[in-house]
């Protein structure tokens, strides 16, 4: 069994340790097949992803050579596997990856589980999402984006990461861990200043930690930032959080498990 990791630099792990995929074209080939998540990728798409506009003269032979090289590499990592992981189909090439073998697929599965969880499962959801976010070792593909297909997949995985962070902070706040997540929330808000959900969560965490003035200051700075950068006003959800803080809404006082549900 192999473990493929793309939430960070491309990595293949075997029972005896990590295996290196050498060469830019081979890495692009593996990444493109992995982000297709078991669906065939046409030869034309692979060629475009690997070479871009610098297509070799005999592109079919060049691609087949790289496919053969990848097959040999994977066969060497799994000598007891009865059939090659890389197969040819009428619609293209497919890399067989079983459940549990690709970190990105496991990450998305965990996020969807958390989305479907009941509000009362806050502590379990928080643990699930902490573990899922721990799969990230750096930028998708280690910042080696490749072509269009890999870039689109990278953007999709990154959006799932943002969603996982929001869900995790929601769960932590429902569990009453306001002070424990303050530093991480402040960092998330700083790194993603236009993402209002992080701002809402930070304001609630500050207020519930006895820092009302700081919570309102975060809102004022966010309002100014939205006005300067986008020429827009804060969303109704963000204004509701500000108003709840100003009014000392009981929803904010002591019952973190329902705060976000009532104000979101």
Provide an overview of this structure.
The chain has 264 residues and is mainly alpha-helical. The protein is 58% helix and 7% strand. It has 11 helices and 5 strands; from the N terminus they run βββαααββαααααααα. It has helices spanning 24-35, 43-51, 59-77, 103-116, 122-133, 148-174, 182-191, 196-208, 212-230, 236-246, 256-263; strands at 3-5, 11-14, 17-19, 86-89, 92-95. The strands form 2 sheets. The protein has a 3-stranded antiparallel sheet, with no helix packed on it. The chain has a two-stranded antiparallel sheet with strand order 4-5. Strand 4 (86-89) and strand 5 (92-95) form a beta hairpin. The longest helix is centred in the middle third of the chain and has 27 residues, at 148-174. The mean pLDDT is 91.
**Helical stretch tally:** 11
Q: List the strand order in the largest sheet.
A: 1-2-3
Overall SS class: mainly alpha
Helical amount: 55-70%
Segments where pLDDT lies below 50 for 5+ residues?
Answer: none
What would you call the shape? elongated
**String of helices and strands:** EEEHHHEEHHHHHHHH
Q: What's the average pLDDT?
A: 91
The strand count comes to 5
Q: Report the span from N to C terminus.
A: 43 Å
Q: Proportion of β residues? A: 5-15%
Integer-rounded radius of gyration: 23 Å
Largest sheet: 3 strands, antiparallel
């Amino acid at each position: 069994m192999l473990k493929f990791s793309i939430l960070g630099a491309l990595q293949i792990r075997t029972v005896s340790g990590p295996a290196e995929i050498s060469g830019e074209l081979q890495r692009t080939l593996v990444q493109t097949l992995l982000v297709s998540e078991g669906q065939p990728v046409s030869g034309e798409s692979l060629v475009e992803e690997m070479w871009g506009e610098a297509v070799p003269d005999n592109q079919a032979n060049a691609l087949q050579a790289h496919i053969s090289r990848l097959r040999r590499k994977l066969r060497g990592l799994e000598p007891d596997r009865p059939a090659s992981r890389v197969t040819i189909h009428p619609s293209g090439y497919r890399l067989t990856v079983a459940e549990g073998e690709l970190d990105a697929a496991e990450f998305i599965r965990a996020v969807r589980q958390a989305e479907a969880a009941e509000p009362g499962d806050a502590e379990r959801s928080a643990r699930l999402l902490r573990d899922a976010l721990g799969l990230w070792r750096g930028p998708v593909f280690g910042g080696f984006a490749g072509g269009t297909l890999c870039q689109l997949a990278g953007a999709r995985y990154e959006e799932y990461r943002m969603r996982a962070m929001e869900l995790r902070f929601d769960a932590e706040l429902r569990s009453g861990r306001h002070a424990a997540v303050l530093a991480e929330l402040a960092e998330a808000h700083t790194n993603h200043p236009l993402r209002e959900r992080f701002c809402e969560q930070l304001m609630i965490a500050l207020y519930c930690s006895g820092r009302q003035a700081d919570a309102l200051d975060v809102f004022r700075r966010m309002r100014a930032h939205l006005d300067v950068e986008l020429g827009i006003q804060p969303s109704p959800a963000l204004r509701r959080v500000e108003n709840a803080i100003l009014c000392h809404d009981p929803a904010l006082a002591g019952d973190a498990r329902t705060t976000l549900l009532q104000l979101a």
